[in-house]
Amino acid sequence: MSGRTVPEGLARLPWKVILLVIAIGVFGQVVLYSAAGGSFSPWAKSQGLRFFVLLAGAVAISRVPERAWKAGALPAYALILIALVLVELLGAIKGGSQRWLDLGFIRLQPSEFMKPAIVLACAKFYDMLPAGETRRFSAIWPAALLIGLPAAFVMKQPDLGTGLMICAGGATVMFLAGIPLRLFVGGALAAAVAIPLAINFVLHDYQRNRILIFLDPESDPLGTGYHISQSKIAIGSGGIWGKGFLNGTQSHLDYLPEGHTDFVFATMAEEWGLVGGCLLILAFLLVIRWGIDVAQAAEGRFARLAAAGLATTIFFYVAINLMMVMGLAPVVGIPLPLVSFGSSAQLTVLLSLGILMSIDRQNRRRPRW
Amino acid sequence: MRRNPKIVTEAMQSYSFSRRAWLLGAAQAGVGVMLAGRMAWLSVAQNEHYSILSEKNRVDSTLIPPRRGWIVDRNGVPIANNRTDFRVDIIPDRLRDEDRVLVLLQQLLRLTPEDMARVRIDLDRAAGFQPVQVAERLDWDRFAAVSVRLPELPGVQPSRAFARHYPAGAAVAHLTGYVGVPNAEQFKATRDGLLVTPGFKLGKDGLEKALESRLRGKPGAKRVEVTARGKLVAELATKPDVPGKTAKLTIDAGLQEYAARRLGTNSGSAVVIDCRTGEMLCMVSVPAYDPNSFSDGISHLEWQMLSEDDHVPLMNKVTQGLYPPGSTVKPMNALALLDAGVAADQRINCTGAMRVGTGVFHCHKRGGHGPLDMKGAVAQSCDIYFYEMVRRLGYDRIAPVARTVGLGEKFELPFTTQRFGTVPDSAWKLRKYKDEWRVADSLNASIGQGYVLANPLQLAVMAARLASGRALQPSILADRVHRDAPALPYQSEHLQLVREAMWGVVNGGGTGGAARLLIPGVQIAAKTGTAQVRRITMAERRSGVLKNGQLPFKLRDHALFVCFAPADNPRYAAGVVLEHNGHTVRNLDTPLIGRDIMTYLLDRERALASLAEVEPTWGGDIATRMAATEAAYRAARNPPPAAAATKTDAVVPSDAPAVERATDLANQTQAALATNTVAEEGSTEGTERDE
User: Fold this and answer.
1) Does the pLDDT value for residue B480 go beyond 70?
2) Which residues of A touch B49 (CB under 8 A)?
3) How far apart are alpha carbons B348 and B371 in whole angstroms?
4) Which of A250, A312, A326 sits opposite B24 (nearest CB)?
5) Measured between CB atoms, which of B7, B8, B24 is closest to A292?
6) CA A172 to CA A300: how far, in whole Å?
7) How many angstroms away from the CA of B30 is the closest CA of chain A?
8) Which positions carry the signal peptide feature in this UniProt record (chain A) (predicted)?
């Protein structure tokens, strides 16, 4: 080992991905600094502090052995599901919907934790399933139940975006576990039929509105379509090189709503242009590819499925958020991880990265041949 | 599910995972590329589109109405200019908490309850984007009081604008027209934001309307950076307005005002034309409205008063009024007779009456003039001479000459509403009434009655053409003067004879002796005319024709006058037409008015002195008289109409239906008279007063 001057534990860390994540996080703080009109408060400073604390936490939990995740997957899942039910009950008692569980010192959003938890739970389930059972019905219904329960509760909150992400995360694991492809094709077809029906009969008015306006944002430029229109203006007016740091007008003059949270990418793109946007997308893709690589290198079904599933969860965050701000998807309230201001998504993503690093650590300890 | 699933081993499962994970990674990379592509599409391909939208968000542009181009006279004296105006408007769309805002505005601007009622009515009627005027011509204190309290007054917009000002007031009303707030239709047609900018006004009538594109200019813009909530962040560079171009007229502002004042209480018009170029030096129609108050938007009461007035102040009589020209056509008749080969020294014996078929035609002089040659007939305005001559030749020989000197002609002038009258002949009558031309028609036409109708401008042109011997085209824009007018197709000796005959009207013991110039060495040539607007029955004729002074206004004769001066070397020609004047007041009759207008051009001091002497006899200058009339009108309407008195901009361009109707009515009176002419009664001149 070359790193005699460096402690062995430190040298073993996946520095490449950590630096990439730090780059994304710091860039996010720069954008938040600008979004606040050139000020560290109220967003950049607290976001930065939290980022480095949580990153340290992620590095710390990378030392948790894989088997601990494996053992804890289902209990954690059960705990979060109970929390979701509690949220729902509290909401029913207080009247009106609720997403938060207020523990006094911290307000938890259980649905957020469900995103990695569903991946781990499904991975655990397929790990327990004998290989020979993979193509049987018994390989499907328990997973479908695992996914369906929390998804139903979350959508009832109502939080369409998170519900969809839970479904997508679970489905990804099912796909990777070897469930026959035709089920996914069939599922896609069924969704194609079900979505218009759902839009008309299941969704809340505001959700239906968002989808209809997504299809034609200019129909209501000052109402619900305002977000998408203004976001596209911010991105489109940025051009190739952007208007320059602190020179964005859409965000500074408050035309862009949610410019520091869900639409932070538009704030960034206005000032940094296509170049900034492509670099950010590339950075995310590299992090995700690292996650997929970790999965490919992992040994053991749980580790593989969990790693690929978590990487894909991060991917869903990025992809859905970017499609949303660029007018390719309805406004569903999914933040851009590590960049958008807010603790929940930051926590989820860094937790996922911590688990990925933990699996990566396991991989590297194993002698390679 | 398949009944017999194939056995899956762990090795197969591992292989399947690798493949599917690779597939997943590839799909994710694909989505990444797709997102980058989408972003490139927005920020590169559609960059321009979104940059404009972003700029539109950022910059709030308030248009600054352009300063309207001046209208100046031939010497550069302003006829219409602009004065600075502090004003306050309300944009209905942005108004919140209407009652509170209006109460506060009333306090700050010290508005009367009538004003408030008008603002409320206008607000109810306004299309949301159209500014409603609260007050204009504010002093700085009141303007500032509103400006500093703007945050409490959403929708209220104080602005500094330029208001149109006509220094000569009513004297130029029918020349310039007036300006007003654009109406909703005009805005919808063009979607030009300028049209809904507070303080912007466009031409509604007259030259202001005809020259709109030249006078308007280009708006400036005050640009400010604002947040989405409308908070002002920074003031950006202000783009100055481009003032409209100045329109120079051929009018002499001094003469215009003088003529308007000199016409006094008459309902009439006067036109003066430069005999060398055809330039119109004045074009007056009185009474008139005050274009200054029209441009501010007039009250309902004012509008009612103007539209009820039997002197039709809303009508531009110069181009819209049609009158039987009466005896003013006699010099033209003489030219036609000469051209047809009639010898000037051929005499006709006037006995005072002449029998044609079953009818009797009278001369205005009861006892008759005795034998007269052509010059004498023109000078004495003898009807019998022209009856007899035209009876012999037929009016079809006269009509072409009438047209050549300008009767029935439509001139190329920037006035949209010209009425150009009739020069009748047999073909015209057959076409119009499906009836053959009769001798009586010829006789009536020969003294400028019957079917003959002309507007005052045509009479002035006729005088100018006879005086100059050239087919002058009248012009009013200094850059559109038709300088190369061809000669009239008549022998110059004939024209000279006609001019001498007109000299005789004033200076040779003719009917227009009153018009004799008091300037030593300068003489005027003229022709008087009287057009009857009622029939004189045989019974009345026997018992003595009623004097005009005994008749109601509407039944009095029109008084007409054409002239040129100096008689031996014509420089100026004029036409004066006074509706229902009846030759009742000497100072207000055509010869003296014509004389004074000509005097102004040749000896200004003398003309002004003359006016100063006579003006007090009819109640002072135009503004004084208008104020008195309005006060009397208000007093007569007691109690005054409630505050419903709303300012309106929908009033009276001269092509408005109300004005059209009034004009039609006036003109129909003449036409009805013509078509009903019965031979027994004939149609003769009234008593033409000799000096």
Assistant:
1) yes
2) 236
3) 5
4) A312
5) B24
6) 17
7) 10
8) none
* B215 shares its domain with B283: no
Q: Which residue has the tokens 């968002």?
A: A210
Mutate to test the interface with A, among B24, B49, B223, B226 (most CBs of A within 10 A): B24
Set of chain B residues whose Cβ sits within 8 Å of the Cβ of A253: 57-58, 225-228, 233
| CA angle at B383 for the pair B382 and B389, rounded to the nearest 5° | 100
- Give the residue from B170, B265, B262 showing the smallest Cα distance to B582: B265
Residue B227 sits in which domain range? 60-248
CATH number of B98's domain = 3.90.1310.10
Q: Which of residues 602-621 of B touch A (CB under 8 A)?
A: none
Instruction: Give Cβ neighbours of residue B60 (< 8 Å, ≥ 6 apart).
Output: B223, B224, B225, B226, B230
- The domain that contains B668 carries what CATH number? 3.40.710.10
Lowest mean pLDDT among A285-294, B104-113, B605-614: B104-113
Residue B191 distance to chain A (closest CA, Å): 20
Pair B156, B261 in one domain: no
Report the residue from A230, A236, A322 with minimal CB separation from B43: A236
What is the separation, in whole angstroms, between the first and last Cα of chain A?
Answer: 18
pLDDT digits (tens, 9 = 90+) for A167-220: 999 999 999 998 888 888 888 888 888 877 877 777 777 777 777 766 666 666
Nearest CA in chain A to B38: A326
| Size (chain A), residues | 369
DSSP label at residue B528: E
Joined together, the tokens standing for residue B389 give: 């001559």
Q: Write out pLDDT tens, residues A102-126.
A: 766 666 788 889 999 999 999 999 9
Residue B54 lies in a domain: no
**Same domain membership, residue B149 and residue B95:** yes
Q: Considering only residues 47 to 106 of chain B, which have any Cβ-Cβ distance to chain A shorter than 8 Å?
A: 47, 49-51, 53-55, 57-58
- Which residue in A228, A232, A237 has the most chain B C-beta atoms within 10 A of its own C-beta, making it the best mutation to test that interface? A237
Residue with tokens 């910059």: B59
- Chain B residues within 8 A of A304 when measuring between CB atoms: 17, 21
State the nearest Cα–Cα gap between A132 and chain B, in angstroms.
5
In a shared domain, residues B218 and B262: no
Q: In what order do the strands lie in the sheet with B220-226?
A: B59-64, B220-226, B232-235
> CA B284, CA B146: separation in Å to the nearest integer?
42
Verify that B452 and B568 share a domain, yes or no: yes
Q: Are residues B599 and B535 in the same domain?
A: yes
Among candidates B32, B39, B53 on the partner chain, residue whose Cβ is nearest the Cβ of A269:
B39
| Chain A CB within 8 Å of residue B19 CB | no
Of A176, A237, A253, the CB nearest to B24: A176
Residue partners of B608: CB distance under 8 A and separation at least 6:
B258, B600
Residue B383 falls inside a structural domain: yes
Q: What is the pLDDT of residues B420-435, one digit of tens each?
A: 899 999 999 999 999 9
Q: Contacts of residue B36 in chain A, CB cutoff 8 Å?
A: 277-278, 281
Give ipTM to 2 decimals. Answer: 0.92
Which one-letter DSSP state was computed for residue B641?
P
Structure tokens at B616: 């007090």
Q: Tell me the count of A-B CB pairs closer than 8 A.
A: 147
CB of B230 less than 8 A from some CB of A: no
What would the pLDDT profile of A39-58 be if each residue is shown by its tens digit? 998 899 999 999 999 999 99
Tokens of A136: 């049987």
In this structure, the strands spanning B71-72 and B247-248 are: parallel
Give me the DSSP letters along B465-526. HHHHSB----B-BGGG----PPBPSS-HHHHHHHHHHHHHHHHSS-TTGGG---STT---EE
Whole-number Å distance between alpha carbons of B605 and B590: 21
